[in-house]
Design goal:
By secondary structure, the chain is α+β, with helices and mostly antiparallel strands. The chain has 3 helices and 3 strands.
Length: 72
Amino acid sequence: MKLVDVAIFTFPNDAAVLESILSAEKIEYYLNNTDSAIIVPGSGTTLSVNDRDLDRTVKIIKDAGFENSLLK
């Protein structure tokens, strides 16, 4: 298993939306920097997933309208 950073969210609520979708899709994920994103707005919450779930996660993020959060 190799973790890959997929997206960074400026607003914790955006990350929470994706968290809900990924849980429903049974995709294992990790949200990093969740506390400091609340304390220091704009610091960002990073979403990481297993590399085997990368393509599926990117599609979910795009379908949910968060494509601007994707890391290039």
